[in-house]
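Rotation project, supervised by the postdoc (A.L.). Task for the rotation student: set up a whole-complex structure prediction and record inputs and outputs verbatim in this book. Inputs entered:
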Amino acid sequence: MTRYLSIFLTFARACLVRDMTFRANFVLECVTSLGWMAMNLAFYLLVFTFTPEIGLGTGWTKEPFFAFVATGMIINSIVQALFMPSAEELTEMVRTGGLDGILVQPLDAQFLLSMHRVDFSAFANGLVGVGLLAWAIPRLPQPPHPVAILLYPLLIACGVAILYSLVIMLAAATIHLGRNQSLYDFWFYLTNFSRYPAEIYSGPWGGPLRALCTFVIPILLVVNVPARVIAQPLTEQGGMMVAGTVFAAGAALVISRWVFQAALSKYRSASS
Amino acid sequence: MTSAASHSPPSGFLARRLQGLRVWWTMLVICLEERLVYRGDFVLGTLMRFLPIVTQVFLWTAVFGATSTGSIAGYSRNDIVAYYLLTMVSRAFSSMPGLASGIARSIRDGSIKKYLVQPVDYVGYLLAARIAHKLVYYAVATLPFAGVFLFCREYFPPIPDWTTLGAFALSLVLSFLLGFFMEATLGMLGFWFLEVSSIVFAYMLVQYMLSGHMFPLDMLRGIPTGVAGVSVADVVRFLPFEYTAYFPAAVWLGKVQGAELVRSLLVEAAWVGVMIVACRIAWWRGTRRYSAFGG
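Outputs recorded:
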């Protein structure tokens, strides 16, 4: 474990040196990334000019909803910084045969393939998320319970674990498809479901969709549970959701590991 | 002698035109075949594009559920759903994934030089490739589109008259050309800046918001700019972006009619003309300052 941590830190250091070599590009990437966040925040502000809350009686009024958005920004920035750049490279490695070089290394292939590149500019969104959360929390109708503050980092980690598992499974699909240029799109579209409170998925179609995205692909647990814990009063049902999220994160990691290993066993080199 | 004669350039205007068409057709067929090689990735990518609209439908249903009003910026809940579905059709024509970054990459890695020494027009080649891409996309996406539209038919107003349908079709064709030439021009900035990914991303952001892809632009009517009597919507109307998503959807929904419809179509055509000229100038100026890299 210490060895892997040391190797990861070496990767991270190399990526930071690379980013700092092209400082202007790094700053530009941070700015464009923040631009995307600003655009989304502008959209939510526009929505709140038409409505006092997202869904009648859901409690997702402006400030709690912005705490929700901030939570999503923090989780997504961690995943985008630590895992997405490596997963995107995998898609090209499979097609060109570059994966061969990874598989002969005396290290775990999943670790190497999913964590060898770090995009430091993606942390900019996370920092904005922290700032937005700091703005929203004092304005919440009820201040967060001390237990909620303790649970929040754990649930953030669970959300990251669920998204990481999803990224790994989508990357594994590359091995079957031969090319998966749309990996980032897939991830974006799937995680799109987690960007809004689960309560919006109601009615004859929303109910089953909510169940699917909670129990089968637990994408709705990623942001909803930590955001609910910090932005809304703790309830007994909330406690069950916390336990369910911790379980879902563990199960997602195990299943994604199995899927990835199974996909690797099907890999046929594309190089000469 | 016979061989030399068969390879000599065709004489006469008609023969040269036919030769040009044959080259263009060959490029189209090659691009179609290239698209169909990785069809698994392509089909999956096409189907996934329907997912964001699902969240938008639920989001706006929740917004309407929490308000006492039945209309937001002139849109009922059904109008909003229909609008988002129609913008998907608009984007199916106007979006050009990978076009600008592909041009910039071929400038950077030097592969663009093969188009400089061959009797092939690079912009024409890109246009053929994009039409091929779109044809495969429509072949794959028509069925899911038809299914989704049939499923959501209750959200739509009655089918418009033939004139509106014609205007809608024309607006889509123009949106394809506008999207293509805007992105191609952007990619040709690679002649001046070797790395344009950040510029492309910034363009994508602006385009996403100001095209009406994110929300109906009519919602910006109430947002002041600071200048008396001028809303953000008024400013956005002066830009070409709305023609790549909002405008075709607004035509179908009857939000733009009569003289306003004709004027908007003319403005859209003018923007296409402006972008064609801009693209040609960028290519002409760019190739004159270009230095090839790579073997």
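Student's summary: Residues 1-6 of chain B have pLDDT under 50 and may be disordered.
Supervisor addendum: The interface with chain A takes residues 38, 40-41, 44-45, 48-49, 51-52, 54-55, 58-59, 61-63, 65-67, 72-73, 195, 198, 201-202, 205, 208-209, 214-215, 219-220, 222-223 of chain B (CB under 8 Å).
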